[in-house]
């Protein structure tokens, strides 16, 4: 078995969830996972922000997918 650097970060067939994935660091993490082939669900409270992030990724046509999902993940 030989070392293949291209396989180290291959996330094809994997699913990830990134909370706060519509902006900032969360979006960068989501894009990194998607660029490695993962199907990434981004969550947040504002659907329009999530859709904008997902749409801008889908126009790149590289790697995996980013899918918006509205969720409020807080405990009070």
Offer a quick outline of the entry.
The protein is of the alpha/beta class.
Topology, please?
Elements: H1 5-8, E1 15-19, H2 24-35, E2 39-44, H3 47-58, E3 65-70
Parallel strand pairs: 1-2, 2-3
Shape: globular
Helix content: 25-40%
Largest sheet report: 3 strands, parallel
Strand content: 15-25%
- Secondary-structure class: alpha/beta
- In DSSP terms (H or I, runs of 4 or more residues), the helix count works out at 3
Query: How are strands sequenced across the largest beta sheet?
Result: 1-2-3
Low-confidence stretches: none
**Spatial extent as radius of gyration:** 13 Å
Cα end-to-end separation: 51 Å
Order of helices and strands: HEHEHE
Mean pLDDT: 88
Q: How many distinct beta strands?
A: 3
